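The instructor's notes for this session suggest beginning with a concrete chain rather than abstract definitions. Hand out the sequence below and ask the class to guess, before any prediction is shown, which regions might be ordered.
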Amino acid sequence: MLQPSDYFDLTCTEHALLFENCRYVWQALPKIAFYLQQQLQPAHHGRVLGNAFVGKNVFIGKNTIIEEGAMIKGPAWIGEGCELRKGCYIRENVIVGNHAVIGNSCELKNSFLFNEAQVPHFNYVGDSILGFRAHLGAGVILSNVRLDRAEISITTSQGKIATGLKKFGAIIGDHAEIGCNSVLSPGSMVGPHSIIYPLTSWRGILPARSIVRSKQQLDISFTKR
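After discussion, reveal the predicted structure:
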C-alpha cells in the first residue's frame, strides 16, 4: 500500500518517469532535482501580468498565467494552463502539472504536483507529492522536518520503514481534500479520495477513501459584567 500506484493515477502527469523503479512512493522525492537537470528545457510560453520574477532555469507551459508578485526561482517545470497567483513563491526543484493552481502566499520546494492539483491559499508544500485534483484548504501546512532533525520513518502494521530522508512532507493521493488550517506532520501518507477535516493535526498513514474528523471541545462561560 505504499507504492506509487496506490496513491496516483500515473496517466495524470507527463512526469511518470519520476516513479520508475520506486518501490515506495516517497522515493521519487530525491529524484526531482536530477530529473529536472536531465529533462528541463527552459522556455516561457505563458503570460505574466505585471511584474513577476521568473528564473533562467524555468519552463512555463502554454496558457499559464503568472500574476504580479509571483517568484519562480527554479529549477522548475510549470505545465500548461496553470494559475500562479500573486505572491506565490516557487523555490528550487518544483514540478507543477497542467491546469494546477498555486495561490497567494503559497511556498513550494522540492515538490511534485500532478495535473489539476490545487494549492490556493497560504500553504506550505515542502518535499511533498500531490496527486491528480488533490486540494489543500487555506492555511494547510505540510511540515517536512522533524523537530529533532532526525531521519523520517513510516510506521506500518509490520513495523517502521526508514525513508532515508530528513526532509519529507506528505504524499497526498488523487482527489484527496485537506481542510483549512490543518497541519500534516513529516512523512504523512494520505490515500486517494480521502478527506481530512479543518483544524486537524495528522500524522501517519491514512487509507484511501477515509474521513478524519477532529472534534473540538469548547468551554463557554459568561462574564460578570
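Then share the key points. The chain has a mean pLDDT of 97. The longest strand covers residues 159-165.
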